[in-house]
Amino acid sequence: MTQWLAGMPKAELHLHLDGSLRAPRLLQLAAKHGVSLPYKTVEEVEAAYNFSDLQSFLDLYYLGASVLRDAEDFYLLMKDYLEVCRLQNIVHCEIMVEPQTYIPQGVELSVVLEGFDKAIDEAKTGWGQSVKLILSFLRHLPEADCLAMLQTADPYRDHFCAIGLASAEKDFPPANFQTLYREAKDRGYELTAHAGEEGPPAYIRDALQLLSVSRIDHGVRAVEDDELLHQLAADRVPLTVCPLSNVRLCVYDYMSEHRILDLLEQGLCVTVNSDDPAYFGGDLLENFAALESDLAMSKEQALLLVRNGFEAAFLPSEAKIALDEQLQDYLARHP
Ligand code: HPA
Ligand code: ZN
User: Fold this and answer.
1) At the N or C end, where does the chain have fewer CB atoms within 10 A?
2) What is the Å distance from ligand 1's center to 325 Cα?
3) Which residues are catalytic?
4) Packing angle between helix 109-127 and helix 71-88, nearest 10 degrees?
5) Which CATH number fits domain 2-333: 3.90.226.10, 3.40.50.2300, 3.20.20.140, 1.10.287.1120?
């Protein structure tokens, strides 16, 4: 089945670009800029990626991102991920970009986007890659800082399809970001937010009600609230689930405990994504493969998950129909 899924056209909707920075590139850029890191070899980097919770991961994630300094670095980061899309047939991707992460290093948004634009143009002309960017905010920072970044991004409004909310969830509830989401909605952005990864189901409700999001990133803790599950299923609110991430960040002790297929069977629009593939041990295809090996996912379930990825995309309906036709064409050749 993994071969069948490898060739299948797929979407990825929950991917932090900084989380795709792999050890060899991390060490290369650290050396280029003379950034001192607590590791010298790929083996040492990977040995350090042993997390006990979201915060223990975020500490190394922000440290890793601190090596990104100039437009060439951002070009290489984007190019490396889009190459994964090409290899894994991720025909449409929605990539979370977090410009607040680069502020301590003094990197301007224009520099970040200069690098990204070059790699995206190459992938679009090279093999027809479909790419959208999500302007993702860091919720451990004050809302005023997020609003300032929203304004900084105004001249680049057409680069982004949506806004998102990432970083430490506990103690940083959706309620803190109501002005940010109202301002973003006024500017015409689509709205998504991380909720119900480490935070309680109430954060999922609040993201929907107080922030008006149309999609939830993670959302797996909805399983603790039956009424919420019914609402998510009835409204087909997409959850961008990241199975390997959930196990590596100890949301579940074992993949066999993951509830993604139960949610699928209950009619929720769950999708499969890699979150931070360089840190969690696999790209999109490896996330699907883990569901096959540890949860006995059927071909029908795999196909529903892929279709949900297209349904949940921030794309106009014509583009979704075109993606579906690509999928039908593949299935006619590879039933
Ligand atoms: N949760 C919150 N913030 C993040 C994550 C995540 O899984 N990955 C990168 N930033
Ligand atoms: Zn995430």
Assistant:
1) C
2) 32
3) 197
4) 30
5) 3.20.20.140
